[in-house]
Amino acid sequence: GITSVKSYEKTPSRNGPLILIIIGFLIALGGKEQAFIFSIVLAAIWWIFQKTEYQVRLSTASGEPTALKSKDADWIIRVVNALNEAIIHRG
Length: 91
Known about the structure:
Elements: E1 2-10, H1 15-29, H2 33-49, E2 53-60, E3 66-70, H3 73-90
Antiparallel strand pairs: 1-2, 2-3
Helix pairs in contact: 1-2
């Protein structure tokens, strides 16, 4: 009983890198500029490697479970389109 299929985009939390920058800034106030630079570099690397997760969600009578997860948005869109075509074809 799948009634519909849709894609969902889950963006990663950016709180960790921001907190790291704030901690580095507070340490820099104490005279440790190298620690601030290190925290900026580490936070930037952390930020860059956080990727958005794309999901396929199925709507059923019992809820909306996540059926598939990937970092590849194009592939998720193709899967959603194929599943929607299958639902239409089935009637």
